[in-house]
């Protein structure tokens, strides 16, 4: 019988492979508010709508102008003179009929001032092309309602992206490089018993060349430690000698090695014995965080982190719970399955211990022991090595002179790889000050290039003073370039910044992958990017 996948599973097949069914469910439950309807906003929404969010609401009162037709592919000539939010909402809705769409014909600034409660109904707010002062007000509203805020901006050939929320806890960081935790340096009794049950000397040739490399490494470690004062190999000479010892165990035919692939695997994977995975620094920071001193209102993440901490410093003996997964190895089916069962049982026992700690902690703070599900505990334990916490200061704190003068920007301006991007970051703040006093952005009027450049230099000087850097640190060429940009929101930049924004939204909604920890500046003039953590 052929099993036909459900329509949604077929539709989202590729992304399900990235963030799984649980991540897709989180997306399909998320309602996003987007402030602005320019190309940056619509490019971000295009990706989110195709990804299958529950719905979106666009807030904007702009009318479609001729310039919009050249910078926004979701607008057509028939849209001229119409409300831009309505036009792009209608076309975005056609991309995925399963996504609810709506718009509010009001200026974002007006909505922020007159109806702050509006934002509480969303899982995330994406603010595009907005000024610093309005964003500070929105930031305070979103933090009060515990709604993540993501800011995206395209200004000429400069892109800006920044999240603002108290903290983002990540269970599935999905790092690029993962070292399997086989616990070869510290085998538990059942694993050692299984290794001891296999006799290399009496095994027949077929069995001998199918013994999993994990068992070979365990036996090698056992013999090496017996001959070297219970110490595993430390230096390159000892490691080479260890591999040579493994090689000597291979069987030969008339003095010629029999070509046992499992021994080759053992020698190439010996580093898993020499350098076993330790607790990552990011995970250790989670375990030592003040938030692990839980209270009745503590989020589930921190209750689980506190339980994990108890396990690590208790039954775990300084180690994280075993994940239980093992890589492919040359082996017979029977031996591989037995090894797999041994690891799985240990992982289940560790998870049960963390569950017991979790329930005890929940009881101690007056919550039901069942208020955190077994599935949630299992997922947390399985990803214990991938836990991360990212915290963000408020926009107001970032702009405050006392924080700005802590030296981060001075260091960035002095660094060869970050100086240009740091200059552009400061200039984005300067153009907002220009707009606040002049009622428009620099370069938006014909014939005002020199005058606007002079005024922008003055605004740049005030930003530099607040930041504790000399105004001369930002070259005049970049000031002039910002004026020439004329606050243009170009489609090529909107596509890049909007694409990055959509990616960050998905990280926040699914709680998978680590979000950008600070302010991202993308410089399309040099094809570089840099993240500033204030």
Task: Chart the SSEs and their pairings.
Blueprint: H1 7-11, H2 13-28, E1 31-35, H3 39-51, E2 55-59, H4 66-69, H5 84-93, E3 100-104, H6 108-114, E4 124-128, H7 132-144, E5 149-155, E6 158-164, E7 167-170, H8 189-196, H9 205-208, H10 213-227, H11 236-248, E8 252-253, E9 256-257, H12 261-268, H13 271-274, H14 281-287, H15 300-312, H16 333-364, H17 374-382, E10 388-391, H18 395-399, H19 401-404, H20 408-414, H21 419-438, H22 449-467, H23 476-485, H24 491-510, E11 519-523, E12 528-532
Parallel strand pairs: 1-2, 1-4, 2-3, 4-5
Antiparallel strand pairs: 5-6, 6-11, 7-10, 8-9, 11-12
Helix pairs in contact: 3-24, 8-10, 10-12, 11-12, 15-16, 16-17, 20-21, 21-22, 22-23
Q: How would you explain this protein's 3D organization?
A:
The chain is of the alpha/beta class and 534 residues long. The protein folds into four domains: 7-166 and 490-532, NAD(P)-binding Rossmann-like Domain (Rossmann fold), CATH 3.40.50.720; 189-274, no CATH class; 281-390, no CATH class; 401-485, no CATH class. 50% of the residues lie in helices and 10% in strands. It has 24 helices and twelve strands. The strands form three sheets. An eight-stranded mixed sheet has the order 3-2-1-4-5-6-11-12, sandwiched between helices. Helix 7 (132-144) links the parallel strand 4 (124-128) and strand 5 (149-155). The longest helix is centred in the middle third of the chain and has 32 residues, at 333-364.
